[in-house]
Design brief:
The structure is a homodimer. By secondary structure, chain A is an all-alpha fold. Chain A has one domain: Tetracycline Repressor, domain 2 (Orthogonal Bundle), CATH 1.10.357.10. Chain A contains 9 helices and 2 strands; from the N terminus they run ββααααααααα. Chain A is about 65% helix and about 5% strand. In chain A, helix 1 packs across helix 6. In chain A, strands 1-2 form a two-stranded antiparallel sheet. Chains A and B meet through helix 5, helix 8 and helix 9 of A and helix 5, helix 8 and helix 9 of B. Chain A binds a DNA duplex (30 and 30 nucleotides) through helix 3.
DNA sequence: TTGACATGATACGTATATGTATCATTTAAT
DNA sequence: ATTAAATGATACATATACGTATCATGTCAA
């Protein structure tokens, strides 16, 4: 077996990894999926899921923590070597597209925020993103009248659109990344003359 | 109470209406919500839900049909009196924001597509949207290299971002409409010099 | 071979969700 | 006041999901 390790995230293909991957994928498509469904998607039986992970609550928690790790790592290596906040933001969007499922899981499951550790991580993540957006605004690359909360919501939304479209087979994943950047930043970037709001 | 009637969609505040409204709202936030949860959100008991609507499957079907009606109506009156496809599209986005929940429900519940009537309606809706996008491309207002499927996915994504952000209290609903238009069409509109892809 | 380990098979009890039926209560119209 | 309609209260059966325990099987390493 080939072990691919990107910094701190081991893709071990262990049973636990398979289960977490299956969970985020299945739950995003069928939020009412049972643990049996998830186990089947991972190619194991339900008893194994319970043995390896535990209860449903623990599963959701592990999925969320894994999602946060992935996003952290992706963002971290994406901004490396880039100076302008705007360039860093664009890189982050592109880097997050492969993890759009994980990102969306966090966004769509507010119940996991009850966990203090997850809440803390999400808050930190959000804060770092806000800071970056503020920098990009200060550097004149993002329209300052657009609220950060809106930008973050749109970011997740566009990520999810990219993942959905790619998964539906309409678009290659690479193209989806490019389109996500195009769509999001074409929209929040200062235009030469006015904004799209003119004449709306 | 003020009765608002837009063409064919009566806001009767009947028990059924309250239940459908509660269902789309609750299920979007808690996809695992039970029928009891939905009934409670509608201010009735579960037995009443069963009496008025029927089984869970019938509930989902009714929610989907109602969503399609709402979207149809909103789009229909939005394009009225506008000639350019681009203007019609912008109007549609703005008009759909108040129905983003319904829109998102359809997008997030592929199981209801099994119903032939719903599948047919969705297909028709999609086709009309594609035609409109094609016209806007032909008129030179939308970047032609962006796939229609991407544009439709982004449209739903941005709608949902608008609804989420508005519901979270960060932004007023009116502002959310404007921001949705700004974000989406700022991104897919031809820029004076190059696209946001440059330098990505 | 032996033993440790992971997984499957099976069974069990419990909890929750679902759908229905019956009767009581309220409300509005006549 | 009386009736009809809508809703609630209650109970019931059934199905599904969940979590755990026990034993069997397979696999890999020492």
């Amino acid at each position: 077996m080939i072990h691919i390790r990107i910094m701190s995230i081991p893709l071990n293909n262990t049973t636990k990894d398979k289960l977490l991957e299956a969970a985020v994928r299945v739950l995003n498509m069928q939020p009412r999926a049972s643990l049996a469904d998830i186990a089947e998607a991972a190619g194991v039986k339900r008893v194994t899921l319970h043995r390896v992970i535990g209860t449903r609550e623990e599963l959701l928690r592990d999925v969320a923590l894994r999602a946060l790790e992935q996003m952290d790592e992706a963002c971290y290596s994406a901004v490396k070597g880039k100076r302008k906040a705007f360039e860093q933001l664009k890189a982050i969007v592109g880097a997050l597209v492969p993890y759009a499922d994980s990102c969306h899981f966090l966004w769509k499951n507010p119940d996991v925020w009850d966990d203090p550790e997850i809440a803390r991580e999400i808050k930190r993540h959000d804060q770092e993103l806000c800071d970056l957006i503020d920098r990009a605004k200060a550097e004149g690359d993002i329209l300052s009248f657009i609220p950060n909360s809106w930008i973050i919501a749109s970011l997740d939304a566009v990520l999810y659109a990219a993942a959905s479209t790619a998964k539906a087979g309409n678009i290659a994943t690479n193209d989806a990344s490019a389109l996500a950047i195009q769509t999001l930043f074409g929209g929040i970037t200062k235009k030469v003359k006015g904004t799209a709001l003119a004449g709306a």
